[in-house]
Amino acid sequence: MKVKKIAALVVGAAMAGATLGLASAQPQVPEIPKEFFVKDGQPNVKIVVGSEGAAMDVVSAADIAAAIGSLLYTEKDVEVSGVTVVAKKDVTSPLAEIPVFDNYDTDSGHLYTEDMNLTDVPAWWNGAAFSATFDNSVWADTIYNTTEDTDNYLKLRVDNLASLGDEELAAKVQLSGIRLVGINETEGKIEDFKDFKVEIPEVTANISFVIYKYTLEGPTKVDPITKESTTPTTNLVTNLVLDNSTLPIYYPEYSGWKITGVSVVSGTGITDKTTFTLLGKKFSVIAVGENLITGESCDACFTYGKDWGVDYYEQGATPEFDGYKVKILDIDINRDKALLEVTSPSGDTETVTVDTSAPVVLFDGGIRIELLDTFVGIAGTNTVKLHVWTDLKTFSSGDEVIPGWVAEFAIENGAIKWIAVKNKEALSGDTVKLFDTYVVDYKSTIYGPKETSDEKKAYAMEAYVYIEPAEHEYETVEASIGDSIDGYEVTDIKVKVNPDKAYIPSKLTEPITVLDTEIMEQGLENVDSNLILVGGPVVNKVTAALADSLGIPTTYEEWKEKYGTGAESGQVIYKEKCSKIGGYGVVLVAGTDREGTRAAAEALLEYLSKL
């Protein structure tokens, strides 16, 4: 199961004494000067919410942000404006989720307690359900081995790995031998399964440059009232080569459908003078099956570069092509020859004679010049007709397209109809990069402990191998009264205005609520304001990093022992200066659990309303 990550942002919040509803018991708040929160009508603080925190933590952060927004004002005769909250969450969708283990359910047979060996819990993936012990699971030999697929590989469709002209192309990707290093060597405690390195010996992405149109027929449906039967049909245009056995693998949305017809929409492939991209690299193909630098033909190569086309130049002219200067020194009309002085971008110069029998290639393919004709122009000047190319390179089957990834192909009747991209070496690491665009990562979420009736500590875990985009996608929503944030409704905004005073809100120029991961990525030493930390060290990485400075426990058990649980565990801790963040101040709003954190937030909200 993916952990939802949400960050709350406040835009234009400007209410005097504004608070959002949901009141509960409130812990004590130490004396915190108003200047900690705002200074000169602008925020003097960032609110840091844990990327792995509960949705209630996000609401608490939004409440605090709204309350601080109410302090951003100057005392003048103006009307009070409203409060708006903007929430940002991670909406990245994985390409694939490979199941490993899941006992986060109500099945009593899946119970795991601290005295047990996790490998004996029948909640490992058996190829169809979480119902096997480890030794009977698809991971028994550490390598993903489904009961349906004895070749130990995973197949999936990956879109936009290539393009031909304006047509985006998908790839059939096969990951062979996915392995979790050391998963069969643990002592059996749940903590031993928190993280593993991933190894993938071979990855292949097969890309067809022929476009097909498939006619598909879906399962017949019978109307329960009229008893009439209907069979849905549709067309699928794709570059993937499909049959009825592979259709549901690469297009799961068409599971149960069958192919009734197929035609070729575009069968040209990659030919001379076409442009295609592969793994983000652009190739402007000049010649397929020919090395234009050496002038030799080849079984599996193509030459690419920039084609400047054909043009006419008078004697004495010096046209320029991508920094290469070509001076027409002399033209022999009778023998169709020309004397050229060519200067490279670095200043190197070569003087060459070119005729119509063969082109000349200079500076290792930097420029190629072909003389097509010589004649006397209308004005009586000697003129040449030249075809020029620059930045020529040759790509052969087996060459690297990007570091670590090679492309293999063949030429059929002067065209390249397919390319197979493969990794040069086995892939291994805490996260494995695919094509510099996606990552393969083992992720687990451990829940607990929770006491059982016999006073044992029980835990649950969800574990998957994810294939997901390397760059995450975020979505923002704006919330007002009546709106909701991840299921929590903003029910009320209470405004208390002193009859003797009114306030003009200052404009916020940037969000004041951020994710803990954003702070950790920029470095604690680069913090440039005071911090309000929402959530304890278990769910907030910045809180964990400053635990020693704040004098707080670092584990759930220690928090529970020191502060208890529920609303009574809420704490508001203030440190005027923290050396780890450049001397800026810190306020911690946290509890043993989300109820405790909420109680601490409500206490701080009440305190802010009185500033």
TL;DR of this structure?
The chain has about 600 residues and is mainly beta.
Distance between the terminal alpha carbons, to the nearest Å? 42 Å
Question: Which parts are unreliable, with pLDDT below 50 for 5 consecutive residues or more?
Answer: 1-24
Question: What percentage of amino acids are in beta strands?
Answer: 35-45%
Count of separate DSSP helical elements = 8
Main beta sheet: strand number and arrangement? 12 strands, antiparallel
The total tally of domains equals 4
* Structure class: mainly beta
Sheet with most strands: strand arrangement: 29-30-31-24-23-22-12-13-16-34-33-32
Query: What is the count of β-strands?
Result: 47
Shape descriptor reads extended
Q: What is the arithmetic mean of pLDDT? A: 88
Q: Please give the share of residues in helix.
A: 10-25%
* Rg calculated over all Cα atoms: 33 Å
List the helices and strands and how they pair.
Elements: E1 6-10, E2 19-20, H1 34-37, E3 38-39, E4 42-43, E5 45-49, H2 55-69, E6 73-75, E7 85-90, E8 96-102, E9 112-113, E10 124-125, E11 130-132, E12 153-164, E13 167-176, E14 179-180, E15 198-200, E16 202-208, E17 211-217, E18 221-222, E19 229-230, E20 233-238, H3 247-250, E21 258-266, E22 275-278, E23 281-291, E24 296-314, E25 320-321, E26 324-332, E27 337-343, E28 349-355, E29 360-362, E30 367-376, E31 382-396, E32 399-402, E33 405-412, E34 415-423, E35 427-429, E36 431-434, E37 438-451, E38 457-469, E39 474-479, E40 484-485, E41 488-489, E42 493-494, E43 503-505, E44 513-515, H4 516-522, E45 530-534, H5 541-545, H6 547-550, H7 556-563, E46 571-575, E47 586-590, H8 594-609
Parallel strand pairs: 5-44, 5-45, 45-47
Antiparallel strand pairs: 1-7, 2-42, 3-4, 6-43, 7-39, 8-38, 9-38, 10-11, 12-13, 12-22, 13-16, 14-15, 15-35, 16-34, 17-20, 17-21, 18-19, 22-23, 23-24, 24-31, 25-26, 26-27, 27-28, 29-30, 30-31, 32-33, 33-34, 36-37, 37-38, 40-41, 46-47
